[in-house]
Write a structure and sequence with these properties.
Elements lengths: L10 E2 L1 H11 L6 E5 L5 H9 L2 E6 L2 H10 L4 E4 L16 E6 L5 H15 L2 E9 H8 L9 H9 E9 L4 E2 L6 E8 L12 H9 L6 H9 L3 H7 L13 H12 L7
Parallel strand pairs: 2-3, 2-5, 3-4, 5-6
Antiparallel strand pairs: 1-8, 6-9, 7-9
Helix pairs in contact: 1-2, 4-6, 7-8, 7-10, 8-9
């Protein structure tokens, strides 16, 4: 089947699928959720090694072909962004794999991180991404690529690089290089306590990342922005990308503890 541009499809060549699945190292007792199985290059290898493979594929023709070729695979025709993994009857410790469509890889990552924070279902996720997205996912404070994706990933997972792939690893070849990253999800007792306002505070800062933190926070906190930063022990003259996750957590806590506005 031809790749469909509207779904951002680039199918992985078999030799590279072998390398990816070798890095994943599936075990006979494990369950996998595969996002975007496409023609099944990864799926075939997973189903031969794992106990169960649940696949979510938006392209109904590819999903139908997968059901015929690999009857053991539970292939769902659905948009992963509209799918709650908690409805797929996945056991705790499920592993995630996927060659993510480049045009929606960041939304899928946020969706996966949110699902993990709510359900704690997943042990890890090994994902193929555009290299620039992988750079953002793994970036640390003070670097050019550090941003919202880096922060939310660091809250719930340890991120490591697995492979780098050239455009020729896919058909059709994309115009960019790709990378495989693994998110090893933190156990519930390893995750920090996240204030309810954390997402609002972080988004307010990073949507204006060229401004100082005091200016970036002003839209959310008004004139109290500098006082909140001081209460968290942070210098408001710093730029948002210099703040560690721990510092951002302190700032969100200070925001929640702020006194109510007069009147």
């Amino acid at each position: 089947m031809r790749a469909r541009k509207r779904f951002g499809q680039h199918f992985l060549e078999p030799a590279w699928a072998d390398k990816l699945v070798a890095a994943i190292a599936p075990q006979p007792h494990q369950t996998f959720l595969e996002i975007g199985p496409g023609r099944g290059a990864i799926t075939r290898l997973l189903v031969a090694r794992a106990a169960r493979v649940v696949a979510v594929e938006i392209d109904r023709d590819l999903a139908a072909a997968l059901r015929l070729a690999l009857p053991r695979v539970e292939a769902h025709t659905a948009d992963i962004l509209a799918t709650d993994p908690g409805t797929l009857a996945l056991p705790p410790g499920t592993r995630v794999a996927g060659n993510l469509p480049y045009n929606i890889s960041s939304p899928i990552l946020f969706h996966l991180l949110d699902a993990q924070a709510r359900t704690g279902l997943f042990a890890d996720a090994t994902l193929m991404l555009q290299r620039e997205v992988a750079d953002r996912l793994a970036a640390g404070p003070g670097t050019r690529d550090y941003g919202l994706l880096s922060v939310f990933a660091a809250l719930g997972a340890r991120v490591t690089r697995v492979l780098t792939l050239p455009p020729g690893a896919f058909r059709p070849a994309p115009a960019v290089s790709s990378a495989v990253v693994r998110l090893a999800f933190l156990a519930s007792d390893e995750r920090p306590l996240v204030p309810e306002s954390f997402a609002r505070v972080v988004r307010a800062l990073f949507t204006q990342r060229r401004k100082t933190a005091a200016n970036g926070l002003r839209r959310l906190a008004g004139p109290a922005a500098s006082d909140l930063l001081a209460a968290a022990g942070l210098d408001g003259r710093r730029r948002p990308e210099t703040f560690s996750v721990e510092e951002l957590l302190m700032l969100a806590l200070a925001f929640e503890r702020r006194p109510p506005a007069a009147g």
